[in-house]
Amino acid sequence: MNRLKDATSPYLLQHADNPVDWWEWSEEAFAEARRRDVPVLLSVGYAACHWCHVMAHESFEDPETARLMNELFVNVKVDREERPDVDAVYMEATQAMTGQGGWPMTVFMTPDGAPFYCGTYYPRGHFRALLDAVARAWRDRRDEVVGQGRQVVEALTSRTALPGGVEPPSPDRLAQAVESLAASYDTVRGGFGGAPKFPPSMVLEFLLRHHARTQDPQALAMASHTLEAMARGGMYDQLGGGFARYSVDDSWVVPHFEKMLYDNALLARVYAHWYRLTGTPLARRIALETCDWMLHDLRTAEGGLASAMDADSEGVEGKYYVWTPDQLREVLGDAEGAEAAAMFKVTAQGTFEHGASVLQLPADPADRELYERIRTRLLAARSQRVPPARDDKVVAAWNGLAIAALADCGALLGRPDLVVAAEQIVHLIRNVHLTDDGRLVRTSRDGVPGANAGVLEDYADLAEGLLALHAVTGDPAHVRLAGTLLDAVLEHFPDGQGGFYDTADDAERLFRRPQDPTDNAAPSGQSAAAGALLSYAALTGSARHREAAVAALGPAALLADKHARFAGWSLAVAEALAAGPLEIAIVGDPDDERTRALHRAALDAVSPGAVITVGDAGAVAEVPLLEGRGPVDGGPAAYVCRGFTCRLPVTTPADLKAEIAGA
Known about the structure:
Strand content: 5-15%
Structural class: alpha+beta
Number of strands: 19
Number of helices: 24
Distance between the termini: 66 Å
Largest sheet: 5 strands, mixed
């Protein structure tokens, strides 16, 4: 039976025609396992996952392997991006059992959901043998198998809860976190640790904020070196813009070619902040190219942004992106082909497979006109290749990250069209993802909401994006919606110890309620919530929201000394807390050029996590930070505040910049 044909997940739809009798995650699937008295085989992946495709082609499309799966198990397929809760709890079990994790994730469990054998990718021969061995163990050693599952569940559910009452990182702890990062810093190639190297976007944001607050040269040096190394390496698409998910080597040369929305949103924003801090032309170019790539390749008809682009095209990883010297000459001719090969480090030996090279750009070419001509012609030729598939579901959290990136890049880099794109994403979220009771649906596709409830990161990342967009537009509706989302966070996600669970109190119950305060490829739900709560409190004066933000930063203090790489966003938020954050209110007619000049000066502020609002007298009731802040001599004025206590108003951009610097 083809149960996946109506799924909203492109990943599940990729498997709809498998000979495997797949079920979606549901109570009906587990009821069927109980009825048949067989284990459940859970397979978790995502649409852009290279090894998920490999296992699908080797095993799930193979009739004999599918026959064994159907005969011996109830088979459940899950898109980890639709159900991060399911992914989290079973990945925790997989890592506990095997010492490692990854996708595709393969879990054998009892009909009650208790995992008893876990792994990741299995080649077909190994996988068939495993199917038989697990089925025999279920038949012949049932008590042992069930007991093992029970032990796994008990071990995971009995883990100590996160400690409550821990103070957020102090300025000294934040300085120690920089030292901790320096200990694992790659002084030659940039980044932290060895291969594989993932883009440390949130750690870089922390380092930029730390430098802005303290002028620590080491923090800026590590951030700048890493940002330049990533932008010049093969992990960055030198033709089309945008970053691949990670580099398989320690030099940023050979990427794992899938491109994820969350990575690119986070990176576009941090490159824009690097530009704001330093004026580096490379930072401006990469931020804008990354935003342009997101809108060109990921934008959906409804105005949202799709989740990812695949690593493979025509079944071959990286085929769309790599070049040989002969291919360059074929497009450009002998002379410019040789120029391009030197410019982009394309060699006869190749830097990838089969003599092909990933394009790199070690330095900005002296002849800019030649570079633009070569890049344009190569990009046009590449567009004739078969492109990688796109996972076109819209994930609320990742679109929240994109709203913040587009708003910041649009405002800081003079691209109002990017701000318009951010507004269009908000329109989609309001119309499709937001329910009548102020709750969120996690995903949509083709403008149709999915069936899965939003998790903590959806609420928090969207609130962060809305507050960043408000700083640019002054639209009070964004503050109102952020408040609605954060009220849901405070009502449905608290753990009673000052932190937050990743799922709501009325979400589906799994064997363990997931909770992880560490930042991974994207901000954890808890650190994202802390940031949005802190900004919202600064705009509204809400003590309740500020106290919740401060409490949620406790785990960052525990991670700062030795595990700062896994607390990047928490530490960035803690920098905002250490700085106040500053509250900047611009009062005046938005159409008045003097108001716009003050607003621009505020947006250029590098104070960590500074909160900005702009509006005339009519907006006072909507945004409390504006209350009591009036014009000066009938003209626009700017107020720099902390905790709603403001310095004397100023009326010129120069005076505002001086006030911000002095504060």
